[in-house]
Queue: 4 jobs
Job 1
Amino acid sequence: MTPDGYYSYGDFLDGARQQEAHVVEDSRSPKKIDHAHRPVKAPKRKRKRGARRVIGVVAVLVLAFCATLLAADFLLPNGVAGYVVETFAPTAPTVYAVSQGAYDTLSDARATSDMVRQRGGAGFVAYDGKYNVLVAAYPTQQEANAVAEKNGYSLYPIRTQGMSASDIAIAYRAKVKPLIDYHVDVYHKLYDLSDQLAQEGTTEAYCKQRVAAIRQSLSNLAAPFLDAAKDSTDTATANYRSGVMATIASLDNLVNLDSDVFLADLRWTYIMILRINRI
């Protein structure tokens, strides 16, 4: 600076060199400079390595799952879809019987049963803590309620088994499939006959012919399973086989029964079949 207060050209050059040195020094630094010449940290780059690794793991798991489904679909007899349907098949419906009364002793129940049978009722004695004398069983709760309210009876639900082929030992599943819920089908056929007979829409002779046909059809359908599973030690398979055989025997007995209360015997038989297969 000159004595009179002015800057000389040399002062100007010295200032320029200092400013240039400052800029060069800052440019070599990874930090940026704001307008006030204060250093500010540069934003870090987001690492995508972790996200890519997660995506890779998920992709491997999806491929493994798909490969497992394909293998299962190939190995299972009816594929994955068939297995799911069999495994989660809905249970057989509940049938609603009506009870004339519940008794503490078997002798009292049998005395009532005889009276019920003379009027065409089943007179089936079912013990569940008490001896219930069942008159008939109806496909719907509404029908059972109507009869119960009219006659002063009580409702007696019979919940039947909801079997699927997967409940049976794998060696017999193919042969047992045609028999799934057979007892419900037999019940409905016998119930229809009893309803027609009660309304005098058919004869006992015709009913016996139809029962014989139902018995023969079930016997033919069950023969492959009954023969194949005769030596099975699997509990579920053996129990199911016993139920089928008992049902066939009940139908056979009904055909050959010489009774003057055939309507009662018809109703007694379908309740017996439901009770054989109850839960």
Job 2
Amino acid sequence: MFDGNLRKPFDAAVAPIGSGLQKLGVSPDVITAFGVLMAGACGVAIGTGNFFTAFLLLLATGIPDALDGAVAKAAGTAGPRGAFFDSVSDRLSDGLMFAGAGWYLAGTDEPRMAMLPFGLLIVASLVSYMRAKAESLGYDAKGGLMERAERFIVLGIGLAISPLFVPVLWVMLVLTAATAVFRFHKVWVQASATQVRTTPAKAPARRRRARTSERRSARASRSRARRSNR
């Protein structure tokens, strides 16, 4: 949802900040690494039940995540290496925070609830993987109700209002799973359309194979007829 509707206005808004940080000599890789450290600290705060501290650290995680790309563009260093590092860092950050949530829930009266954030991590990783794989194949897999930016916002609500923490995780799980289904269907339709377009090109080859098989059958029949005449 964020990528589809707000990405361009947001990038335009943070571009001046990125330019300013670049002039100060701040590296985009350092900003990305700082975000991972904040995510780890956020996971620890969640695991120990310090939800308001975790909320502040979540903000400290999201800000670098929003600015590293802007700094890279301002420095003219945006490219595959930075995109790879950013993607890996995002998955690591998600894992650290969800692990903290699992640790916290494991210590409650219902320890089996610890599976909830791990299930959320699975579907969140699936959403990211489907987009990466689809784009590597030349398809578009953007969109959905619960992308990473939306997960940050909803998780922040659950941390800021602690009684809503578990219900928020359930909402995230359902909407992230719906996003995974949406992306799968979107790519499936595109891939099916490509397959339909390429099918007619195979028809002449099938006809040639059929004619070859008919000629072989005819030659075999004539050969048997000659032997019977002898």
Job 3
Amino acid sequence: MSIKALAIVLGAAFAFAGSASQAFAGKLVALSIGVSTYTQISSLPSTVNDAKAVGKLLAEFGYDVRLVRDPTSRVLRDAVDEFVQSARGADVAVLYFSGHGKQVNGETYMIPADGGSNTDGFADHLAVSAVVARLEAAGVKAKIVFVDACRNNPYVSRNGTLQGDATRNASAAERFILGPGVMMSFASAAGELSGDSNVAFSDYTQALITVLQREQRIELTELTRAARKLVVQRSAANVGNRQTPFEVSSIDDPVHFVRTGGGRVREMGRSQAERAPVSRTSGVITR
């Protein structure tokens, strides 16, 4: 049973409260990352599918999307560097990451395809808060984070014990310090697993896709509320795998996804997905 990881989305086309009828149609950029094939920890069946589907949807909502599949640590950092540079002065920036992640001392880390199994070392892991801080420094107005992830740790030994001192606080209490214009929406609570009951997509990403596909325009809190309802309903049927999405925000004004078209998806870096496909299995998979 593989453990899901991280799927992260930063962004949404938005409108201010005083002019809710008119969407804010400025510079919209996105980075969609999916990691399915890992060299030192379990592979994940749906994460590249998640990233491709989210990237395609964001393009429909007017975003200039960069897609990266199965990046190594170096490729991931290069992609983030290019993304932050492209996001300078943007009205909205979107970062989506689907792959293994871990939470330690309240911080969420993204793990690239070559992420090591030594949990006491963080050299090949990238903190979500560090990317948000760089987007803030780049002058991005709206920084919205969706984290579709297990809120535990993928580094588990064969006897079921966690490896290394760094894993001991994997489900510690949240300690969010948000700057202005930031929202983080998590697929599950701290310590919970995030499921892939249909294998093709993670449950939370599937819920987001389902809601967005039927809407031409939707406010962000309505989106997360509708997605949460779908996930809770699905997880209720999976005994022992409760999943409850939640969010934290410093955004004061309404934020909208608006289907404007005109976006595009460009692939960056090197993909291992086709060369080393992840086998598909039936039943519920926890990431």
Job 4
Amino acid sequence: MIKGIIFDKDGTLINFHALWDGVGARLATEFLERAGLTRDAELEAELSRSIGVLPDGVAPAGAFACGTYAECGALFARALERFGYGVTDAEAAARLCEISDETSCSKTARYEAVCDLHKLFGDLRTRGIHLGLVTGDTQAAAEYFADRLSLRGYFDFIEGADFGAWEPKPHRASADRFRALTGIRAGELAIVGDSCADMRFARNADAVAIAVLSGVGGGRELRETADFVMPNVEYIYEIIRRTDI
């Protein structure tokens, strides 16, 4: 019986593209401007490409879609090194976190819930299920999301992936902290997300892996790695019925 569910944020609970497509398109330009580096079209394209921000959209398996800012920072640093700039991984990651938080934690940021999250979370809590939020985004952005949509009260646990602070997903550490906080045991946890990284997180944590098709992940890849696949989180009731949550 499942007694706890950890949700991803972007692409799982909110529309990824509404919030992040515009950020991704300007991220390299903004980074160079803030770092005081010379803007160069070729360099900007290389930076964007390194994290999976492509001219025709965001790559599902790219670091921008399903990685952390530590990973993006390392990729930016390698790209900058090829162009003769010396920026450390940590410096690049910190700059990216700063840009992301200023953008996603603003009143103009577009937060479009994939369904009625208040109804969903209220029903799940009524069933006695503990809820967590674990994201590759920053802690500040995770908490801003919960407050912006008035969802904080539903969560027992909210954790971002601030670089250097702890082992982010897909490492199992976040799931272990969630279990310790709520008292649930191995086999009582489900993890819901829109990427293969979320499914690896579930596998590493010995949790039920539930994929949603509302984000950037490809259906074929998710079906190969998940225990269950659903259009969006609103369909979790069917999985609840089938797994006797």
